[in-house]
Amino acid sequence: MTNLAQNLLRSADEGPDRPALRMDDAVLTYGQFRDAALRVAASLRDRGVQPGDRVGLVLPNVLAFPVVFYGALLAGAAVVPMNPLLKAREVQYYLEDSGARVVVTLETTAEPVREAAATVGVEAVMVGPASPAELMADEPLAEPVDRSDDDLAVILYTSGTTGQPKGAELTHANLGRNALTTAETLAENTADDVIMGCLPLFHVFGLTCGLNTAVLRGSLLTLIPRFDGAKALEVIERDSVTIFEGVPTMFAAMLHQPDAERHDVSSLRLCVSGGSAMPVEIMRSFEERFGCIILEGYGLSETSPVASFNHPHAERKPGSIGTPIRGVEMRLVDDDGNDVAAGEVGEIAIRGENVMQGYWGRAEETAKAIPDGWFRTGDLARTDDDGYFFIVDRKKEMIIRGGYNVYPREIEEALYEHPAVAEVAVVGINHPDLGEEVAAAVALKPGAGAEVDELREFVKARVAAYKYPRHLWLVDALPKGPTGKILRRAVEVPEEVGSR
């Protein structure tokens, strides 16, 4: 397999007039999509971007995202997608760490990106949502840059519970083969399908299962820049959406719309859920109301993302993440990497064509994550007699809020910058709609004073809006282990705040 972007060129050759991308009234055909992406590639080349260079992309789900993404790939660059909700200091870190040459963002939300780019000393290009005309050369690039299977296509940043975010290196083969398996064995999509693109394209789930799979098969991807349950139902009806992909909170939002019954969603043939565990009750109620099946899967940024799935033509087990997909092996191991006995809980380890090359510039972290060719996920699971996997807990202390990953350490670091703060523990608490909500227990320095609201606003100014702790309370001291390490698991949550 060569450049992942060859899929766009092929789909455009086969059906140049077929609609490829839609965002309300704005529509791009495959021919227009290809030409725009080639012109972006030419513009990036004119700006000095060489094959192997990194291009930052800070865009929501607007038409400009797929055009710039594929344009960068056609130029031979690797893309560094970022959440447009990030603050300047967060964008700065990603730009510095990845060594990006250029960063592209929307005119309307450019300030943090412009600030970060100026600090790092890279060019920031502002584009419009419907067309990245500011990044399109007059003439298209004659020939797309050839890439090999092992060449880098995307760096996706993810964090552990300690240290700074790490960039997962996904190759053209990683992403291309994961999209192919999704298209052939999971979504089974064709050029006649309409895929709902409300999963963020800067996240690997939306990127692979939405955008790359649609482009591979010549399907239409219809985009919603910001998810809203009522809007999603409208778009499903308007565009006759056949495949809906989302995180559990999206399904819950659509299910709980007061006028859900009013919308004709009979075009839906398949719903795909991932990102966090789907509550069985939400799955059952959604399927009853909307008359379609939900298939739940599992994956991570480091696995491109799909690793296992409840396959369409096999038994589906609610509450399970299914069985490994084609080209992927999964097993459960103990702390020493040995297989656990049948029925026992172990850490999911993954090997296959979907596993990242490593963490960008972090050989030590890579060796720790993939010590023996098997990627350690940090998720604990068990299997049943049929080989279906069931997640039981996370080894890592990551919080999944509405499908977004929030890493306690990052929020704690922001709180530690406050002069009155001595100790912090950030934990996840249960939330009926979001799955988990971010909460923080804070101990102040002796003699120091700070109000809860003040601390909350302090963090809010430093991290993306979905990350800051909605719940924060003061304590005299935090629970610690024998070495003095703060034990997040032992933090007591006040009754009025909720439960873990």
Topology summary:
Blueprint (H helix, E strand, L loop, with lengths): L5 H9 L4 E5 L2 E4 H17 L7 E5 L5 H11 L3 E4 L6 H11 L3 E5 L4 H10 L2 E5 L24 E7 L7 E6 H15 L7 E4 L6 H14 L2 E4 L5 H11 L3 E4 L1 H8 L14 E4 L6 H11 L2 E7 L6 E4 L13 E2 L3 E6 L12 E7 L5 E2 L3 H7 L5 E9 L5 E6 L4 E3 L2 E3 L1 H9 L4 E11 L3 E10 L7 H9 L10 E5 L25
Parallel strand pairs: 1-10, 3-4, 3-5, 5-6, 9-10, 9-11, 11-12, 12-13, 24-25
Antiparallel strand pairs: 1-2, 7-8, 8-18, 13-14, 14-15, 16-17, 17-19, 19-20, 21-22, 23-24
Structural summary, described in words:
The chain contains 13 helices and 25 strands. By secondary structure, it is α/β, with parallel strands linked by helices. It folds into two domains: 4-380, Rossmann fold (3-Layer(aba) Sandwich); 399-497, GMP Synthetase, Chain A, domain 3 (2-Layer Sandwich), CATH 3.30.300.30. It has a nine-stranded mixed β-sheet with strand order 2-1-10-9-11-12-13-14-15, sandwiched between helices. Strands 4-3-5-6 form a four-stranded parallel β-sheet, sandwiched between helices. Strand 3, helix 3 and strand 4 (78-81) form a beta-alpha-beta unit. Helix 9 crosses helix 10 (280-290). The termini are far apart. The mean pLDDT is 93. GO terms for molecular function: acid-thiol ligase activity.
Index terms:
500 residues; alpha/beta; Rossmann fold; GMP Synthetase, Chain A, domain 3; 2 domains; nine-stranded mixed β-sheet; 13 helices; 25 strands; 28% helix; globular; AMP-binding_CS; membrane; ANL_N_sf; transmembrane; acid-thiol ligase activity
